[in-house]
Amino acid sequence: MERDEIERRDFPSARRGYDPAAVDEHLRHVADMVTRQRPGSLAEGTSSQVRAILEAAESGAQQLRDDAGREATGHVVRVEDAAKDMLEKLERLHAELDRLFAGLKTTAESLSGALEQLSRDVGTFGASVEPEREPAAPPAGETEETPAAPPSDGVRSDDEAGARLVALNMALEGTPREETARFLAEHYELADVDALLDDVYASAGR
Q1: pLDDT digits (tens), the chain, 206 positions
Q2: CA distance 118 to 124
Q3: Is the Cα torsion angle 158, 162, 167, 170 positive or negative in sign?
Q4: Could you give the CA distance from residue 200 to residue 184 in angstroms, rounded to a whole number?
Q5: Model's pTM, two decimal places?
Q6: Which end of the chain has fewer CB atoms surrounding its CB within 10 Å, N or C?
Q7: Residues 6+ away with beta carbon under 8 Å from 148
Q8: Residues 6+ apart with CB under 8 A from 1
């Protein structure tokens, strides 16, 4: 039904009928209500609602994308911070290892020098305790003095250096300490035989 069909005014006139102005007003009101409820208006209203819903959905989706982006950025920042902290720890560990290696190198060099010195000392000591070669016979009429040899006349000598050399030779030959002590007591007058023997047998590794 169209609006002009509702508002038509070709009603027949009659006495004692309704007021024409009131009827016209009522018909305009009805026409307005019908117009508002027509399918076109309803479709327009529905379309507006759909557009509003779509806009809200798009806004919500954009918000979700923004939130996800912020969360992803925060995660990346946390990972970068953790990686940076790990690198700093590795650098500190590397520096500590370098310091330890430097200390070990210094210690190794010191030990090497000490071993070389000990080797030289052992070589010198070995040369000093090598058995003496049989001396050549002295010329006729001359005698050779041997300070390390014990006296043969029963008098004990106070030559401590000679006693030490005799004791060292005996120790190197495997003579027991007690026998060496008796020999020294018989032929030398020493202040401390035990101390001398301790030193000699320790040097000989006995």
Answers
A1: 566 656 555 555 655 565 677 777 777 777 777 666 655 555 666 778 788 898 898 888 898 888 888 888 888 889 989 988 888 988 898 888 888 778 888 887 777 777 777 767 666 655 555 555 555 555 544 444 444 455 555 678 888 899 999 999 999 999 999 999 999 999 998 889 999 999 999 988 87
A2: 10
A3: negative
A4: 13
A5: 0.29
A6: N
A7: 159, 161, 162, 165, 166
A8: 34
